[in-house]
Structure formats: C-alpha cells, structure tokens
Amino acid sequence: xxxxxxxxxxxxxxxxxxxxxxxxxxxxxxxxxxxxxxxxxxxxxxxxxxxxxxxxxxxxxxxxxxxxxxxxxxxxxx
Length: 78
Prior knowledge:
Layout: H1 3-20, H2 26-43, H3 49-77
Helix pairs in contact: 1-2, 1-3, 2-3
C-alpha cells in the first residue's frame, strides 16, 4: 500500500467516522479507529509488507461493514 493510498483511505474513513459516529455502535467505532491508527502507522513507515497487506484487507472489510450499516439504516428511515 503506497503513501497516497494510505492518505486517501485515512481521509475517507475519518470523514465516514465523523459523519456516522452517532449511528455506529461502539464495536464498529473502535474497529474503525484501530484501522485508522494502523493506516497512519503504514503511512509513517511503521509496518512491514505483510502487515500492510493484512491492513489493506481490513480496510476493505471496514468499508463493507460501513456500507452495510449505512444502507440498512437508510432502509429503516423510509
């Protein structure tokens, strides 16, 4: 994962966290914060290639969880 990719992921995840934090339960919010922290370590060169690859998968999983939660909440509001 390159530095620009990390920056983009950090920015998007922080925006989602700020916009949806009241709709997320504590477990998802803490996972989201952990992923953001780990991305910041990658950006600063604190993880090796294997850890960075694992983190890339976690980022994708986090995006999937957030999309699922947000779309379900929108269904309830109809």
